[in-house]
User: Fold this.
Amino acid sequence: MKIEIPDIKKLVYQMELPLRWGDMDAMGHLNNTGYFRYMETARIDWMHSLGQVPGPNSVGIVIVNAFCNFYKQLEYPANLHLKMYTSDPGRSSFETWVTLERCDQPGDVHAAGGATTVWVDFPKQKSMPLPDWLRELVTP
Assistant:
């Protein structure tokens, strides 16, 4: 199934990673929890690429909700291409979106999901305004 990401979203990060055999379930395909782990990996790797290493004594992102739409099974072995998009920056939050494709089937989205992402001060456990540099980066 081909999924088009609307123009209101901005592509901010791409990565490839192998589908792990241990993430398969008894039915022989990627367990639904695996999709969320892979989307998490994209978000965390993106933050690392920006020099923002999450830690309990700093600032960073947390998600307050997450969803995933499953279009086609993913089965081992495969290498995955994840594309991460952002949209809708608010005072302290923005939306993240991730598509999962097989590297050998470019453009064929097997799953697409996202999360509402909030910028927080971890020691204070409070949201805080998005820094200007991040707001500029996530604004379509």
The chain has two helices and six strands.
